[in-house]
Design a protein that fits this description.
Elements: E1 5-6, H1 16-24, H2 44-61, E2 67-72, H3 75-87, E3 93-98, H4 101-110, E4 115-121, E5 145-147, E6 150-151, E7 156-157, E8 169-172, E9 189-193, E10 204-209, H5 210-213, H6 226-231, H7 241-257, H8 259-281, E11 297-300, H9 308-317, E12 320-321, E13 332-335, H10 342-359
Parallel strand pairs: 1-12, 3-4, 3-5, 5-8, 8-9
Antiparallel strand pairs: 2-10, 6-7, 9-10, 11-13
Helix pairs in contact: 1-7, 2-7, 3-4, 7-8, 8-10
The structure holds pyridoxal-5'-phosphate (PLP).
Amino acid sequence: MTRVHNFSAGPAALPLEVLERAREEWLDWRGQGASVLELSHRDRAFVTIAERAEADLRALLEIPNEYRVLFLQGGATQHFAQIPLNLARPDQPVDYVLTGQWGQKAAKEAGTLAQVRIAASSEAEKFTTVPDPSTWRLSEDAAYLHLTPNETIHGVEFEPPAELGERVIVADMSSTLLSRPLDVRRYGLIYAGAQKNLGPAGLTVLIVREDLLARKPRPLPAILTYAKHAEQGSMLNTPPTFAWYLAGLVFQWLRDLGGVEEMAERNLIKAKTLYDYIDGSGFYRNPVDPRFRSWMNVPFFLPDPALDVDFLKGAQQAGLIGLKGHRDLGGMRASLYNAVPQAAVDALVAYMADFARRHG
Ligand SMILES: *Cc1c(COP(=O)(O)O)cnc(C)c1O
């Protein structure tokens, strides 16, 4: 068996230890005589798995008691719509700060459901930076302020500025959740599709403050109502049981390694290895304002796009996959999620240096 180094943006690399554990438990989950895939979500065995996953996530992020954790479906994209439905009246303003394409999509989806106001955007800078917070035009009466702390396509990452005060911050953390410590109290609602940094596709994790669940801004079907999912422990209907289980194994793996603090140290070194190489190469280029470069997603460009095909072909031969940039941006992108080890980054840099030597 050969395992490649996987830099895919999502679905993405999973920790080998987690895959091995899942394989060990594949046919028979701890003496149940059945796979997790085959267990009812109401079965005591699955409830144990589900509760353990939530407890581990709470421990990893020190999630305060007044926040509920939801294990839902739909991907981040469904929640682009479900968030305004649950948090805002149709006539109520909602603020969006755009630092990349995902935030743009979130705002567009909310556009028919509430009064979307673009408080700031770095589109004119091709989403290579974060607009200075002093220029954000925030509405006093907004139901929430939506941010994308890590833009997966453009590779822009930032923390919400301190001066936001008591505003309800809603954050799409699909590609950064669990990559570093986080002060959950700064947010009203955090959401993340699992297939980047948490586990397999099919699961979306929400961390939402209880008082927001009490908002009833409009009539909604139960299946779209966060409060109903919370009341039912994310089992209003059949949850994505296998994805929930596998995410739980990822949370355990992370705790065994030392948690998000340890992961942040590793992630910082991985990102620095790659950015330092790119900046010093005189060949490759990353256009993002160095203050806001993502630790998780590193877009980079070759001096001539005509070289892209060769670069990718050689990478594949060297056991490096998932490097093709997003179709809207072109170039390359290396995603350095928690499951991507330093050895993968070192192998990538070695390949890039060799390619530059041959084509520079
Ligand atoms: C991948 C991604 C999405 C879209 O996720 P889906 O699960 O495909 O809906 C949204 N936001 C961010 C930041 C992402 O990285």
